[in-house]
Write a structure and sequence with these properties.
Layout (H helix, E strand, L loop, with lengths): L2 H15 L3 H7 L6 H6 L7 H11 L3 H5 L6 H11 L4 H13 L4 H25 L3
Amino acid sequence: MDRKFIGDRITSLRIGRDISERELSNTIGKSDNYINSITTGRTFPSIESLLSICDYFEITIFDFFYPSVQNPELLKKAYDEIIRISADNLEEFILILQSMKPSDFEGLVSFMNRYKWNKNQSLIESKTKPF
């Protein structure tokens, strides 16, 4: 793990809350210079300290390491569905996604919604047909 990333991330969170390094250090029960030693790259935080920092800023560890993720709950839902795909199909799916431009996704979603509707409609029709 990159020391600079961790230090920069803590600095960004700290500045956003308008709290000094010393105040944050004391809030998580550490010595006055603890946060400074992390932000300057002299030391890594322990897992316990990192969890305390995340608790203070009301974020998860995931949010700490992936701040650009816009909707982590939605990402988790997507992940839960993706892991159901076989390895071969997943490789193929990834290749398809990598070949697409952002503008292609709207058409893909539209197609998938039509497919889902048609599939559901077929299921409804087959259930209502007499034997």
